[in-house]
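[Discussion] Sanity-checking designs against the backbone

I'm trying to build intuition for which residues belong where. Below is a structure token string of 148 positions. I'd appreciate it if someone posts a full sequence so I can compare it with mine line by line.
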């Protein structure tokens, strides 16, 4: 039963992330922007987000098992998920770089809040690479704002 529960968590997180990524594409608008020297090649984003989404799903599953759906840490996990899913439509879909930066910075803060209160150490460590990636993505978003 726990394996099914894990599969549901990971499938929802990865599935919604992929659906958003497939329907809201960077396209010509993003290609036309000036980007900083530390912008990775486009092919990096898919594999990185796939791994990050799997880790987010595992963390959510672990919190649901160890602390329950009513736990504060699960509420924060859900909030970060909503902010995560919001960023792509704001930045790439609406072409709103400054509001995109506000969303991703809020997301980074919520992720750090989660890490500060979560009891389960596995969930904590699942969020560590996510926090690092968000810090990098926030710097990239901020640099794009400055350059454009």
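Best answer:
Here's mine. Compare freely.
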């Amino acid at each position: 039963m726990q394996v099914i529960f894990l599969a549901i968590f990971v499938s929802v997180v990865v599935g919604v992330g992929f659906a958003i990524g497939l329907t809201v594409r960077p396209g010509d608008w993003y290609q036309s922007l000036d980007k900083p020297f530390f912008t990775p090649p486009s092919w990096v984003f898919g594999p990185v987000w796939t791994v990050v989404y799997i880790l987010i799903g595992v963390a959510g599953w672990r919190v649901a098992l160890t602390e329950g759906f009513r736990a504060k840490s699960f509420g924060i996990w859900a909030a970060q998920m909503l902010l995560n899913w919001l960023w792509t439509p704001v930045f790439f879909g609406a072409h709103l770089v400054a509001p995109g930066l506000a969303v991703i910075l809020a997301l980074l803060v919520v992720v750090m809040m989660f890490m500060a209160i979560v009891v389960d150490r596995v969930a904590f460590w699942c969020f560590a690479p996510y926090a690092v990636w968000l810090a990098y993505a926030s710097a990239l978003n901020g640099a794009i704002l400055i350059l454009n």
